[in-house]
Amino acid sequence: MLIEQKIQELLDKRALARLGGGEKGIAKQHEKGKYTARERIAMLLDEGSFEEFDMFLTHRTTDFGLEKQVYLGDGVVTGYGTIDGRLVYVYSQDFTVLGGSLSETMSKKICKVMDQAMKVGAPIIGINDSGGARIQEGSRSLAGFAEIFQRNINASGVVPQISAIFGPCAGGAVYSPALTDFILMTEQNSYMFLTGPKVVKTVTGEDVSVDQLGGALVHNEKSGVSQFMAKTEEEGLQLIRDLISYLPQNNLEEAPRIECNDPIDRKEDSLNAIIPDNPNKPYDMKHIIHAIVDNGEFLEVAKDFAKNLIVGFARFDGKPVGIVANNPAFLAGVLDINSSRKGARFVRFCDAFNIPIVTLVDVPGFLPGTVQEYGGVITHGAKMLFAYGEATVPKVTITIRKSYGGSHLVMGCKQLRADINYAWPTAEIAVMGPSGAVEILNGKEIAGIENAEEKTEFIAKKEKEYRDKFANPYDSAKYGYIDDVIEPRNTRFRVIRALQALETKKDTNPPKKHCNIPL
Fold first, then answer.
1. CA 445: distance to chain centroid?
2. Which of 80, 130, 64 is nearest to 103 (CA)?
């Protein structure tokens, strides 16, 4: 029957489209330890939930013999499905088709799912594995990139955007991931750079490998371009599923709440003894984070970059929050250029998507030196200050130990519209630390003491006086800058109660086209 023939034709075309660039290309992809575009989508989404768009779309280019290389789908698989039952839109570049190079028609496919995601208010996940622009198409492929970039920009702050780099991503192609909220790379096969090793060698004379120039380790540890690094694609895709679980569908929704089986009034006695007696001795802030959040679960973001500042997602009483915390275990927890960039970006993401911010403070100041000043630490520090002051989501700040000078102001202080500010009894809030303060306050007296032993005793005495006055939270509390001094073991309960009280918070910024954040 004719209808049966038509159905068989459809099934044959679907089978052909699913082969992408063919069996040989798929085999090569597997030999490299990489999955195909469709295999990646299958691992990412709930089983059986994927609905595909434009399976039969093909390019229309006839230059340079491309009319002989026409593949159904043209190098990218697009559509929508669910992650834990929640809608997401996805595109996955197919390296088996002309190296996954971006054509005009591939761009149209990607733009279609991005447009649809914006219409319905759902996250966009892009899986990148591409040799870049399809050079046979000239300016049309460049225009295709720009069309995608414009949609990335429009979607920013409206729906979450996540990029997975599972192969090459070079030249102009890097800008789409860079415009998204989170980038994930794999240790072995992924790399990103604007100009490749050959161009670098020609222009600068540097000999550098692909991995040294733009591998996962480089962008997770040094540049901060990527926020996550996975050993395998399977691990990376599971990580994306975990990340999505903390995020709302769009900027008009709240983040998904889950049932909490961790008692909200659980006391953590270990916290009463976690702060060393010596104020200069380090400890790991992550121990505090894991102790107070639901079930000790914390999804750290950019964990290998600027380790002196910790950012990531956790839950309190089942509700997602963003956590920002200094870590005295690295660089004494000081703020610097990289940690300021990292913190500001994370705070702005949380604010854009209605995720409350919990800040844990133990910061002695900003990192001094010419490298920092020449690098613009003032501007970068202002980014973080701006992000906190601009944020209208619930903000709860707990000062654990040190909070000095400009770094105190940057870390969610009361004057930057933090809603509830708590402090542990170990908190020290002042313009600077005792040693620096004594040098300024008592410098002339110290200079006039000739006997070394007497000078040492005098300095120690003055430092104690300063510490007695400011190395406690009560001086700030008497002015209302600290709302309450809490027992460390009760921190979880006090944070949850604060967040519950702030659930209906309304705060606004003055009407404006947009701000001019110091970039």
1. 49
2. 130
Please report the pLDDT score of residue 124 as a whole number.
98
Which of 403, 368, 407 minimizes the C-alpha distance to 475?
Answer: 403
Do 326 and 285 form a contact (C-beta atoms < 8 A)? yes
DSSP state of 379: H
Where along the chain do its domains lie?
2-244, 269-427+472-501, 433-470
Closest to 468 measured CA to CA, from 460, 457, 479: 460
| Backbone region of residue 157 per phi and psi (left: phi > 0; alpha: psi in -120 to 50; beta: other values) | left
Give pLDDT, residue 62. Answer: 66
- Output phi, psi for 363, to 5 deg: -130, 120
Distance (Å, whole) CA 94 – CA 38: 8
Low-confidence ranges of the chain (pLDDT < 70): 62, 65
2-244 falls under which CATH superfamily?
A: 2-enoyl-CoA Hydratase; Chain A, domain 1 (3.90.226.10)
Pairing of strands 298-301, 76-83: unpaired
Residue 503's H or E segment, with its range, is: none
- CATH 3.30.559.10 for the 269-427+472-501 domain, yes or no: no
Q: How many CB atoms lie within 10 A of CB 82?
A: 16
pTM for the predicted model, two decimal places? 0.95
Q: What is the pLDDT of residue 249?
A: 98
Beta bridge partners of 228: 184
Residue 124, CB half-sphere, CA atoms under 13 Å: how many?
32
Same fold, 2-244 and 269-427+472-501: yes
CB 182 within 8 A of CB 124: no
Please name the amino acid found at residue 442. N
Read off the amino acid at residue 40: R
Question: Token pair of 5, please?
Answer: 């023939």
The span from the CA of 499 to the CA of 425, in Å, is 21
Of the candidates 150, 153, 422, the one whose C-alpha atom is nearest the C-alpha of residue 292 is: 422
C-alpha separations of 491 from 362, 465, 485 in Å:
15, 29, 10
